[in-house]
């Protein structure tokens, strides 16, 4: 009997920074995100998706329309090398989102979202109780990894997890520990294990080497644009944008908003869609 292997690609959006020099809180200020998001993309046919993304990228690179565009300069290491939603032009994003949406059910995306303002409150409260405690960036990342993999998603005989490298360190053992903790959480919650430790293969790579990491980056960027307000140059007003998330919403299995609603957070899915009106409408109405 053939063993089914679920292939999963993991990346982040936003940053895990809470403080600048001298412990100055900077959450939500320019250059520091208000939200930190960790997402995973389940891909049925990684080789096929990678080939389609590479074909699209080569077609765009060869197009005279993009001739002389800085992001298409190979020396800059941006679109000419790999897709990255933050760096890609709007015309490029349109083509990539169209390709991803056409994959349909072959892609399934899940994410956890944390409000760093709430995390900051918890850290400051802990500092009062434990003066020697110092927040480390990786603890937030590892905690979200545990939350992401502790929820009940698709089951398989084996799991191949490719995680986007953070900085210069791949932190393989820390990632393995976070997923081990998630598996114990899963067992405690649901009463059975998804597999033995050896059924989980975890490795670290880069978007240039693993095209499917480029795909999960696009899903994460759509979620980030939903949560993080951006200045609209035409109106001068900061606002969120949900149109990108709408393009791929049919492929979203779940978004777990950890700090919205009840103590365990709110789960957004096909039955309970995530919308700006629901997530931020009440907050906006309270403003004078």
Quick structural overview:
With 288 residues, the chain is α/β, with parallel strands linked by helices.
Can you offer a commentary on this structure?
The chain has 8 helices and 9 strands. The protein is of the alpha/beta class and 288 residues long. A hairpin with a 6-residue loop joins strand 6 (230-231) and strand 7 (238-239). The relative contact order is 0.17. Strands 5-4-1-2-3-8-9 form a 7-stranded mixed beta sheet. A two-stranded antiparallel sheet has the order 6-7. The chain has helices at 46-62, 90-102, 116-129, 137-150, 172-190, 211-227, 243-248, 276-285, and strands at 5-14, 35-43, 107-115, 158-164, 200-205, 230-231, 238-239, 252-257, 266-268. The chain has one domain. The longest helix is centred in the middle third of the chain and has 19 residues, at 172-190. The protein is globular, with a radius of gyration of 20 Å. Helix 1 runs antiparallel to helix 2 (90-102) and helix 4 packs across helix 5.
Furnish the topology, listing elements before pairings.
Elements: E1 5-14, E2 35-43, H1 46-62, H2 90-102, E3 107-115, H3 116-129, H4 137-150, E4 158-164, H5 172-190, E5 200-205, H6 211-227, E6 230-231, E7 238-239, H7 243-248, E8 252-257, E9 266-268, H8 276-285
Parallel strand pairs: 1-4, 3-8, 4-5
Antiparallel strand pairs: 1-2, 2-3, 6-7, 8-9
Helix pairs in contact: 1-2, 4-5
For the record, the count of structural domains works out to 1
Strand order of the largest sheet: 5-4-1-2-3-8-9
Number of strands: 9
Structural class: alpha/beta
User: What is the 3D form?
Assistant: globular
Enumerate how many helices there are, as a single number. Answer: 8
SSE order: EEHHEHHEHEHEEHEEH
The mean pLDDT is 91
Please give the alpha-carbon distance between the first and last residues.
64 Å
Major beta-sheet overview = 7 strands, mixed
Task: Determine Rg (CA atoms, Å).
Answer: 20 Å
Report the sheet-strand fraction. Answer: 15-25%
Low-confidence stretches: 283-288
State the helicity in percent bands: 25-40%
């Amino acid at each position: 009997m053939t063993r089914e292997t679920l292939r999963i690609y993991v990346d982040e959006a936003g940053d895990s920074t809470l403080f600048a020099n001298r412990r100055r809180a900077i959450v939500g200020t320019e250059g520091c995100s208000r939200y930190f998001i960790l997402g995973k993309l389940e891909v049925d046919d990684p080789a096929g998706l990678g080939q389609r993304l590479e074909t699209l990228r080569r077609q765009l690179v060869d197009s005279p329309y993009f001739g002389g565009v800085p992001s298409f300069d190979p020396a800059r290491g941006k679109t000419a090398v790999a897709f990255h939603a933050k760096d890609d032009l709007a015309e490029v994003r349109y083509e990539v989102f169209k390709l991803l949406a056409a994959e349909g059910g072959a892609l399934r995306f899940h994410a956890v979202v944390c409000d760093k303002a709430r995390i900051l409150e918890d850290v400051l409260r802990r500092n009062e109780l434990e003066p020697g405690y110092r927040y480390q960036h990786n603890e937030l990342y590892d905690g979200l990894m545990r939350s992401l993999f502790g929820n009940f998603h698709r089951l398989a005989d084996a799991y191949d997890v490719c995680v986007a490298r953070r900085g210069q360190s791949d932190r393989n053992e820390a990632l393995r520990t976070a997923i081990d903790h998630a598996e114990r959480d899963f067992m405690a919650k649901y009463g059975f294990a998804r597999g033995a430790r050896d059924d989980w293969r975890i490795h670290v790579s880069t978007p240039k080497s693993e095209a499917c990491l480029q795909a999960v980056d696009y899903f994460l960027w759509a979620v980030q644009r939903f949560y993080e307000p951006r200045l609209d140059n035409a109106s001068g007003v900061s606002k969120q944008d949900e149109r990108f998330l709408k393009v791929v919403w049919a492929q979203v299995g779940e978004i777990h908003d950890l700090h919205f609603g009840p103590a365990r957070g709110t789960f957004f899915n096909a039955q309970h869609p995530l919308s700006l009106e629901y997530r931020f409408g009440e907050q906006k109405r309270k403003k004078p």
